[in-house]
Amino acid sequence: MLNNVKEINRVEQFKIASRNSGRKYLIKQDGSFIEATNLIVGDDVISHNVEINRMVQKLETKKRDLVGITFIDYSRVEDRVVTGGQGYIYSASTEERKFNTIVDFSLGAGYLLGRPPKNASAELKKYLNEMRLGFAYEAKVTFMISEFTGIGPMFNGYSTSNSIYNFAEDNVSVRFLGLNIAGMSPLSGNSGFVNYGMALGPVFFLNEAKAMSQNLRVTGQTLGIYMSLGFDFKLSGNLYLGMQTGLLAGNIRNLKINGRDAGIEDPESVHRFDGKISLKFYF
Fold first, then answer.
1. Residue 35: is its pLDDT beyond 90?
2. Which residues contact 193 (CB under 8 A, 6 or more apart)?
3. 78, 126, 189, 224: most buried by Cβ count inside 10 Å?
4. Collapsed DSSP state (helix, strand, coil) of residue 118
5. Cα separation of 177 and 154, whole Å?
């Protein structure tokens, strides 16, 4: 067996003591070692001949099933114990690639990007601008269809409000339900991932409003696109901390007030930028 072998992410020279000299090994995830000859490293499969009970068998091993490939080349052996020498280790896999599903819960802030109506008064523009910043939240499940690509449902929500005492009140919520296509790229040192995604689905707008003590329910919907970019940093085990940005794009061309067509001239923009912190579970 080899001692003091540690996983690294690049080819590196190191010193080690071992009872086996001048041999090649595959280090498996369970910590065991397989002696190998004629080692060939391909894009995804490691093909090698392994001597088992004096019989040579050709095995093919996925890189993700290994911790590393060690090349031992010792120059000094005393009593079958290596007291000095050099070797090389190449990391053939990373722990975080062994997952099938990602569950994501996010909280943060959202900022509406749409402009107030051109003919609005200065007071109304000020009132609407005060509603731009709101509370954003998201839940998402991603099923991996390849090593770094996944697909799954996502729910994204946003809420904001404003009021003028005894005159006006607005409680706005925007909800997006879409099918998300996600991709990711690993960060160096097995520390996490860069993630990105795009989702398409319906956007639902609701404003529970009051005007001069009259209750108004304003509704509308449209087709929207949600794009995201972020980083996931490994905390422990399958738990990751995410820092996420997102952009929702969509315009509502027809609004209803208490179930009746509002007859708006300009589309109601639901364009929004999000910044969120998320907890992610990689299963």
1. no
2. 96, 184, 185, 186, 187, 231, 232, 240
3. 224
4. coil
5. 6
Structure tokens at 176: 């997006």
Q: Is 124 left (phi over 0), alpha (psi -120 to 50) or beta?
A: alpha
CA 32 to CA 54: how far, in whole Å? 19
pTM of the model: 0.68
Task: Please state which of the ranges 116-120, 138-142, 226-230, 260-264 shows the lowest mean pLDDT.
Answer: 116-120
Please state the separation of Cα 251 from the chain's center in Å. 27
Cβ within 8 Å of residue 243, ≥6 positions away? 230, 231, 233, 276, 277, 278
Going from the C-alpha of 276 to that of each of 24, 31, 157, 229, 273, the distances in angstroms are 47, 38, 12, 11, 10
Q: What angle do CA 184, 186, 187 make, to 5 degrees?
A: 130
Please determine, for residue 217, whether its predicted confidence score (pLDDT) is greater than 80. Answer: yes
Report which DSSP code applies to 114.
Answer: P
Are 222 and 251 within 8 A, CB to CB? yes
Partner residues linked to 106 by β-bridges: 138, 278
Cα torsion through 216, 217, 223, 224, rounded to 10: 80
Which of 3-12, 134-143, 221-230 has the least mean pLDDT? Answer: 3-12
CA dist 215 and 74 (Å) reads: 83
259-268 per-position pLDDT tens digit = 999 988 889 9
Cβ burial, residue 243 (10 Å; 0-12/13-18/19+): middle
Contact criterion met (CB below 8 Å) for 141 and 101? yes
Exposed e or buried b for every residue in 127-148, given b needs 16+ CB within 10 A? bbeebbebebbbebbbebeeee
